[in-house]
Every structure is written in C-alpha cells, then in structure tokens.
C-alpha cells in the first residue's frame, strides 16, 4: 500500500503570514495536532513548513514567549520532511522513525500538497491488519467444521 492510498487528504493549512494564535485556533477548530504551512507556487500549494501543538507548548508557552512577538516563520520547521504519494507505507514509516517525526506531509510529483500521514494513522492501519490476522485461525476452524458436516 502506498502513502497516497492511505494518507489523510483533509490537511489543515495556513500561510507564512498567519499568527501563532491563528494557527492554534485552527488546531482547536479542526481537532488536529499540526498545521502545514504552505505557499502558492504557480497555482500549486506547496508545503514549506509545519507547526505542531508540541512546538507551541514546548517552544513558546513553556518558555513564556509573548505570542504577539512571534510569527509562524519563527516557529515552523524549515527542514520539512515529506513523502511522495507513491512511497510505500513501510518505507515511509522507517524514514519517519529514523528522523524522529510523527507527521509527514504527502506531496505529488510536482511537490504539491496531497495529504498528511501521521504515526497515529499508521498505528490504526496496523491494528486493523493485526485484528484481521487474529481472525484467520477462527475462520479456518469454521471452514474445517463445514467440510466435516
């Protein structure tokens, strides 16, 4: 399965000009832990950074930073890690683990934003797969019983 088949296509986005308060309000409104910062390049929405709820709490609020003096550009991650829609989930998971990221924007061949993949999404997928695997012995037993009857 590819990242493009599984990623969440409803990505909460904001521009570089957004304030920290606006980004925090977007997170609360949409019940998400991140906002992807984008810019328009020749009619393509390109991710250029990401701000997470952890960034807001650990880097700003815990340090007592005046939120009115900080911009999105001051906080967002500039070395943005992305995955392509045709990347495999397994390879992307290994990459996320190696880089220590929990969320990764998904882009198309032109670099345009297509979705976002979060570690929680992968855990949900794995839980579903394990649940189906756990049912295999029961299904096999029922098949055997049907053949005996």
Q: Can you give a write-up of this model?
A:
This protein is an alpha/beta fold and 149 residues long. The chain has one domain: Roll (CBS-domain). The chain has six helices and six strands; from the N terminus they run αβαββααβαββα. The strands form two sheets. Strands 1-2-3 form a three-stranded mixed beta sheet. The chain has a three-stranded mixed beta sheet with strand order 4-5-6. β4, α5 and β5 form a beta-alpha-beta unit. It is elongated. The relative contact order is 0.18. The mean pLDDT is 89.
Helices and strands, with pairings:
Layout: H1 3-6, E1 13-15, H2 20-30, E2 34-41, E3 44-52, H3 53-61, H4 72-75, E4 83-84, H5 89-99, E5 103-107, E6 113-118, H6 119-148
Parallel strand pairs: 1-2, 4-5
Antiparallel strand pairs: 2-3, 5-6
What would you say about this model in short?
46% of the residues lie in helices and 22% in strands.
Classification by helices and strands: alpha/beta
Q: How much of the polypeptide forms β-strand, as a percent range?
A: 15-25%
How does the major sheet shape up? 3 strands, mixed
The mean pLDDT is: 89
List keywords for this structure.
alpha/beta; 6 helices; CBS-domain; 149 residues; 3-stranded mixed beta sheet
